[in-house]
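Run log // design_07
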């Protein structure tokens, strides 16, 4: 998908999820500030990981039972964590769109750099493609 096609599609998704006015104001700031959005998104993703880890440790399980619970919890959406991941991924997309909308090169975009550094380029590409279609599926984005 070409960048020129991507931005309007993501704009429609963002305008649907928020008020269109807030999307326009955040994307077209004189100086794009996506660092805070990148940090918030990463915190949400860490929070979802912490919940999943806590579930396997707080129960007092040991040995094979603990390993089984860890694998099962890791493969199923835990209530609340799916929403956290979806919100985080949507924020990441918004951060990248803030940069693109203001002519910032992707390599200089803190949100883009964070996603690529932690999750990899394939996930970044998948996030943008998914965000252009349906934000509600962002939580099911496969790991890179």
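design_07 sequence
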């Amino acid at each position: 998908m070409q960048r020129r096609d991507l931005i309007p599609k993501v704009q429609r998704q963002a305008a649907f999820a928020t008020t269109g006015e807030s999307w326009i104001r955040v994307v077209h700031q004189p100086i794009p500030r996506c660092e805070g959005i990148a940090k918030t998104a990463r915190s949400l993703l860490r929070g979802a990981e912490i919940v999943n880890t806590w579930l396997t440790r707080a129960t007092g399980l040991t040995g094979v039972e603990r390993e089984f619970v860890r694998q099962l919890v890791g493969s199923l959406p835990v209530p609340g964590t799916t929403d956290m991941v979806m919100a985080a991924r949507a924020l990441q997309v918004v951060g990248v769109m803030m940069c693109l909308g203001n002519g910032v090169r992707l390599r200089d975009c803190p949100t883009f750099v964070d996603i690529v550094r932690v999750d990899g380029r394939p996930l970044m590409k998948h996030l943008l493609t998914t965000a252009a279609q349906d934000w509600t599926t962002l939580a099911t984005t496969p790991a890179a």
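The first helix runs from residue 3 to 17.
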